[in-house]
Amino acid sequence: MIFLKIVKKGHSKHIYQQIYEELKKSILERKITVNEKLPSKRNLAEQLNVSVNSVSNAYEQLLAEGYIYTIERKGYFVENITQYIDQHEARAVNFPIDLKEQHHDKGGWLSLSHMTSDISMFPFKKWLKCQNEAIKNHRQELSEITSPQGPYIVRKTISRMIALTRGVKCEPEQIIIGGGTQPLVRQFMTLLKGNTKVAIENPGYSRIHALLKSMKFDVAPINLDKKGIDMKEIESINPKILFITPSHQFPTGIIMPISRRIELLNWAAHSNDRYIVEDDYDSEFKYGTDNIPSLQSLDRHHRVIYTGTFSKTLLPSFRISYIVLPPKLLREYRNFYSNWIQGSNSFSLFTLHYFIESGEYERHIKRMNHHYEMKRKLLIKQLQATFKDDIEIKNVPAGLHFLAHFKKNKRYEDINEKAKQEKLEIYSIERFNLDSKYKKDETSISLVMGFATIKTEEIPEAVNRLYRIIN
Amino acid sequence: MIFLKIVKKGHSKHIYQQIYEELKKSILERKITVNEKLPSKRNLAEQLNVSVNSVSNAYEQLLAEGYIYTIERKGYFVENITQYIDQHEARAVNFPIDLKEQHHDKGGWLSLSHMTSDISMFPFKKWLKCQNEAIKNHRQELSEITSPQGPYIVRKTISRMIALTRGVKCEPEQIIIGGGTQPLVRQFMTLLKGNTKVAIENPGYSRIHALLKSMKFDVAPINLDKKGIDMKEIESINPKILFITPSHQFPTGIIMPISRRIELLNWAAHSNDRYIVEDDYDSEFKYGTDNIPSLQSLDRHHRVIYTGTFSKTLLPSFRISYIVLPPKLLREYRNFYSNWIQGSNSFSLFTLHYFIESGEYERHIKRMNHHYEMKRKLLIKQLQATFKDDIEIKNVPAGLHFLAHFKKNKRYEDINEKAKQEKLEIYSIERFNLDSKYKKDETSISLVMGFATIKTEEIPEAVNRLYRIIN
User: What value of ipTM does the predicted structure carry?
Assistant: First the structure.
């Protein structure tokens, strides 16, 4: 005789679920012995005063999960289940407290972060319209996984666009779309063997530096002179791969002149296994001059790997970036990643395709260029009015941030602490210093001033906070 | 004297752009010597009969790009530019023909692929409604990059949902969202040291097999018995990590009974560095019984890494998957990936949050479960009517595919060739055989029959084509 507690009315679970759970519990707690015959469906139904159907459903579920087995014309029997040790220990309680995430209230904060973009003017309506085009025209493709490099039609649109705006010359075949520069860099860097020496600008993009180090590359940070990455250091260190941001050096803002570009391309052309990775992260924004053609546009030896992103021009949360691989690397890529599934949402990618094709993308960039130029001017004006002779601004009219030096001796830890009190998000140059031996200049403080997120009307207050932080 | 060709009317480019380009060309082709002084803006303007402004803009652009330099009160001079070798070689022409992508017309094709989902009933309207909620409530977050593991609120919703539907017990902290199972597996497997031995079901998911091999793991395919992965082989091979699909073995369909589950968990609990990766790729679909709780739900020793996906329940093109890491691995993950940016589109993720919260997700699954059950029944019926005694169907009422054996000796190459002629997308078991020494059984053909994409009314025609392919 089996005793089961079944509640017939007002219970949140169906009767068959209750029978199933009670029986499962009895089996796991060994209240019913291994190989014991269960009552027939009819008998149990009578005993519990429930329908045979309910018992039948419960038995089917136990059978599917392997708690019981059946012998034809004989009935249902309990499986031999090795009792799992300390079955009843609750785990949730055990979750280590140090792994709990802290969620800070961002209310009242202002941001001079360089990592954001201005969402206030994002044309969501037009984006949604392009989504409808995507649904209408790509229904079939949305039910499938796409090409490993991303939908061809989207790559074709990107290749046309960057030919026009950045002078990049490539076939759609050479483009690989991905959810950010990091995963794309990881993908192609995986193709390169073990102890490869890699050089990166210093100060530079610390996330890429961290990624390359985590991949066990021999990474050398290389200092900058006024034209950008130092040519002599490159020649003495002799890396295979060079990571640079020629259009607008991150974070110093240097625009690499044509002479240094040509020196670099000549350096790369010297050997078949040298590559320059050109990270063109925010080249769409220029104030006063036209865009400067990419380094890739000058490369005649397939030595440049170009990386671009929609994080600055659209939204960073969209995570749409791409790389352009030279043919030799592309061939290696295809061989290595033949089983790889494209990780970006095709729905967003097709939407992007229509957004570009319809001209909305270009219009949006123009609008934003104007808007950012205005905010940038205002921020610089306010900084100069407030800090007077104590500030030196690296006034390169490009991108979504600039570097500012403040004549003040203060530790960055103190700046960060004070910024927290003042509720101002601001990043110092320290974050981008990739050389472990680096010593802070004792006469000044350098901050990366991002102006993408801050609202025009918030600029005076942000600069006031900054003044209190620094003084 | 400098000669420039300027077209004043009807040219697609502004006059300043033409001056800029002509001057740049002259400098690159050394028609103007290094350090030569350029005419003053006024002089050149007069010579070309254009406005001073046009010349000024052209000079500014050349200055920004570093083609010329300026000495105060003296004027503009040509920079010393090392001429780049074979400047004029066109590259596009050189793009290797073997890297060109082939685009096949899919018109007239029918598909029994296991990789798709049915888009015909996807509630786009409701999805778009949830998007609007995302825009309304997460504007600020959409202008930023999110937490490396994905937005907390989305992870919280997923953790609640899988607790309910899969018995998975975890904190939102343990969830990592990513653009597919592949990149997520690569992420946590990167945490494991060099020569780790890894075991995987055979036949099994070949993409994961390929990924693990490309990561240089020592991968052992392990055969299946009727309960799933073979326990004895595991004990003799002694891997550290085990990749399994207990809810619905891919591709054979075996539902792992509780006894084997407990054996596996006991095996894993024996050592602190053993892990079981439970790939729960299509457990949402069950016909006739309820869902079977996940292996993770039975694990009391934090030995199971759970991986789930929305590729089957929503659309594979959305690329939304997640893993649940045990605390020890989570700590290592956080240390290693502290600089990592979440690669999924937050806009889709917040949308998913509202889609689940509003109950739409559950309703959609219910609808699809019913729809798939019907298509599945019809396909089986049609197959049995057509192939009669020559077919044996592994009738496991779960998932979006089943395995079928055909009593026929034919090479898979011939099947594939014939399928192309008949315009039927179909995959044989060969694709999932991970053992290089594997020899095809000469008495039968095994095919993976996916029924997600095929329309009800297309089923008879698809089975007819299949009949012609096999006979």
Answer: 0.91
